[in-house]
Amino acid sequence: MKKILFLFGTRPEAIKMAPLIKVFSQDSDFDVRVGVTAQHREMLDQVLDFFKIDIHYDLNIMMPNQTLHDLTAGLISRITNEILLKEKFDLVFVQGDTTTVLASALAAFYQKIKIAHIEAGLRSHDMQSPFPEEMNRVITSRLADFHFCPTENSRDNLIKENTANDVYVVGNTVIDALLEGLAITKQNGDEPLSEKFSFIDFTKKIILVTCHRRENFGEPFLDICNALLEIADEYADVEIVYPVHLNPNIKEIAHSTLKRDNIKLIHPLDYNELIWMMDKSTIILTDSGGIQEEAPSLGKPVLVLREVTERMEGVDAGTALLVGHNKTTITDETARLLNDTVYYSKIATAINPYGDGTTALKIKNIISATL
Question: What sign results for the dihedral spanned by CA atoms 346, 357, 18, 354?
C-alpha cells in the first residue's frame, strides 16, 4: 500500500484536490493523508465541509500582516517537522501556484519524497504577473516528479523548459469538482439559496463579478469599478452581483465606490453558493483562474479582468475574452454580449478546453501504474 499525502492551503486548491482525494481514498492500494496549511481559513473550511474531506494535519499557518518571506520560511519548516517527518510518504500531491505549493514542493524535495504537481505547466511568461504565483509554479515544475497538465498548451510549456518526462495531459480537476458540486447542490434543492439571496432580482440579467488579485490593487481596481458603474447606469435590466473579497485593498474601495441600486455587494460566497450563482448568471467578469475554467462548462461567457493570463486555452477556444482593467474595453465587451445574441451564443456554446470531469480518475490510474 502506497502512502499518499495531499497538501494544500487555499479554497481553490481544496476544490481541485477534492475529486482526487475521493478517488484515491476509494482505492485500497492507497493510504491517504490530507494536510492543510490554511492560507484561507474560513473559505477553506467551508470547502472541506462541503466535500466531506477529513483532515489529518492542520498547520493553521496564517498570521496578521504576514510577509511572503515569513510565510514561505514558516511553511517549509512546519510542513517538514509537523507532517513529513511524522510518517513515511511515497508521494506528495500539490496543486496550482500558491505559496503553499512552493513550500510543500521544497519540503518534500528536501526529504527526497516524490512530488506530483496538479495543474502543471501553466505559464503567463511574466514573473511579475501574477506575482508571486508565476515564480511558484516555475520552481515547482523543476522539483516535481509527475506533471499533470490540464491542456496540450501547458504540456508544451513544460517541454520548452526541458521538462519532458512523466508529463501527462489529463484535463483539470476543477471540472470534476464543479460537476460533483452542482449535483450536491441540486440534491439539496434550490429553495434555501433562493431565499438567502432573495434581495437579488433574478428576473434581470445577472453579471457576476469576482476580483481579488494583487495585480488589480490600486488604480486598476478603480478602473474596473468605474466600468461597473457605467454598466449599471446604462442597463436597467442588469443586476451586478459582486461577492467582495475581504482584503482591505479591495473591500474598502468597492464599498466606497460601487453605490448603485443594481449593484449588489455581498460577502464572499461559499463554494456551493458560488457555483449556484454562476449558473444563474448571464455574464461573468473575473480575475479568478478557477472561474475561467469552470464557467464554460455552464455556458457562461467570461471577461477576464487581467492583462495576461496563464489560461490562454479558454481565450483561444473562444470561451473567454481578455479585457484587463481598461474601462472602455470592459464596458464595450459587456455591451456586445448583452446586445448581440449571436455573438453571445457563439461564446456560450464554445467547447470547454479544460476537460470533461474524468481528470481525477485519469490521474489515479497513472499513479497506480507508475508509482
Answer: negative
Active-site annotation holds for 310: no
Closest CA to 331 of 235, 198, 214: 235
Fold of 190-348: Rossmann fold (3.40.50)
Active site (annotated) includes residue 306: no
Helices assigned H by DSSP within 111-217: 133-143, 152-160, 173-188, 191-196
Q: The sheet that has 320-322: what strands, in order across it? A: 263-266, 238-243, 205-210, 283-286, 302-304, 320-322
In the structure grid, which three cell numbers stand for residue 114, read together?
516524490
- 265 close to 242: Cβ distance less than 8 angstroms: yes
Model pLDDT, residue 166: 96
Catalytic residue, candidates 41, 214, 260, 336? 214
Does residue 267 have an active-site annotation?
no
**How confident is residue 110, by pLDDT bands cut at 50, 70 and 90?**
very high
State the catalytic residue, choosing from 147, 212, 311, 325.
212
2-172+356-370: CATH topology is Rossmann fold (3.40.50)
Active site residue 233: no
Ranges in the chain annotated CATH 3.40.50.2000: 2-172+356-370, 190-348
Among the listed residues 11, 40, 97, 117, the single catalytic one is 97
- Please say if 125 is a catalytic residue: no
Catalytic residue among 41, 245, 260, 336: 245
pLDDT, tens digit, 9 for 90 and up, residues 271-308: 999 999 999 999 999 998 889 989 999 999 999 999 88
Cis peptide leading into residue 132 (ω within 30°): yes
Dihedral of CA atoms 74, 115, 54, 364 in degrees, nearest 10, equals 170
Residue 56 is a catalytic residue: no
Rounded to two decimals, what is the model's pTM?
A: 0.86
Catalytic residue of the set 119, 176, 294, 333: 119
Tell me 34's DSSP state. E
